[in-house]
Design brief:
Blueprint (H helix, E strand, L loop, with lengths): L3 H10 L3 E6 L4 H12 L3 E7 L1 H11 L4 E4 L3 H13 L5 E4 L4 H8 L13 E7 L7 E4 L9 H17 L6 E5 L10 H14 L7 E6 L1 H5 L1 H6 L12 E3 L3 H13 L4 E7 L5 E2 L7 H14 L9
Parallel strand pairs: 1-2, 1-4, 2-3, 4-11, 6-9, 7-8, 7-9
Antiparallel strand pairs: 5-6, 5-10
Helix pairs in contact: 1-11, 2-3, 2-11, 4-5
Length: 302
Amino acid sequence: MRDFSEMLSLAKARGPRKVVLVGSDDREAIRALKLASDEGIAKPFLVGEKEKTRAILSEEGLYGEVINASTPEEACEKGIRLVRSGDADIVMKGLVKTSTLLKAVLNKDWGLRSGKVLSHVAALDVPVLDRVVFVTDGGMVIRPDLATKVSIIENAVAFLKSIGYERPRVALVAAVEVVNEDMPETLDAAVISKMSQRGQLTGCDVDGPLGMDNALSIIAAEIKRISGPVAGKADLLVVPDIVSGNILGKSAVYLAGGTIAGLILGAAAPIVIVSRADSAPSKLASIALASYSLGDNNESSV
């Protein structure tokens, strides 16, 4: 995938998906949905305080079904149940706390549990790169151990396959590309790379530790004499912890003029969580990513 414009075109070709905004009296989230609706990738459902939501919808020029909920907990339950029942496809966070939303997602009786770890994947569209690069996990798991890193990679690889990557190239990034016992992330990277070589991670090519330079640049990889299917051509960057992933994502935006989109993976449906500080193209890209990952939409009535 070269850039977000290509991704948006691909998502539009698959038709609109039903997006439920949980905590719908959120003007910024409604504006994002308006963009997605205008582009033909989303059909909105709104769960929250009905009168406030209708007022914002009228002001922003968006139309959608509004389901009343008087508390954040009620909004989360009703929104998640819509997806669980198949009446909606995608969860989008509005004016509710992330922790409240995720508690509903993980409800044992009516939530969206899948048995997988919940993890975050970000997509970066940066002008200096010739492709979209994905990063995990800079938004969910604070400090993953080795087993959790494997689960995070499995989530991200499954997601990349859902949007057309036949064999994602996965780089476990660190400050250096050699194993250093004083840097635990390099030890984890080496172990995970060996696991991949022995078939414990399938459907992708994995290498690490790799520096950011030789993960993204073929020239840098050649200079440092690093070869293999991942070096210089990584589709997915696996960061050591949430701090490095968060800084990497924001640096792509604020230092390199890029655009970022993101989703939470591992539930039975994609979860869109956008920040108020995100740009309009970023919010649109997040919804487009979720929509496109669900495959073709054959519902002619939408």
